[in-house]
Amino acid sequence: MGYFINLSWVRFIPNGKRMILFGTKTRHTKVKDEVILSNSCPKCQGNLELYDVKEWFTLYFIPIFPFNKVDSCYKCDKCKQAYMKEIKSMFVGSQKN
To answer: What predicted TM-score, i.e. pTM, was given to this entire model?
Structure first.
């Protein structure tokens, strides 16, 4: 599972002698009810699984709650390469011919 901390959103708020540290983090979470695209990775022929990309509010670098769904993508289970979700239509369209 990949994590990205956007440091431009990290804020330090002095509260007496303490500091409150909060910000955002982008996380990929697997969509459970989606069909896996078998042997579809253009790079290694691995299986592609659908992931939602969401921004999470963090407090002291701990994700508290999601507040924004950024996008969805397919990720290979072998090489971990990510592809836009439109790649599914390429494979479905090529199988019809």
So the answer is: 0.66
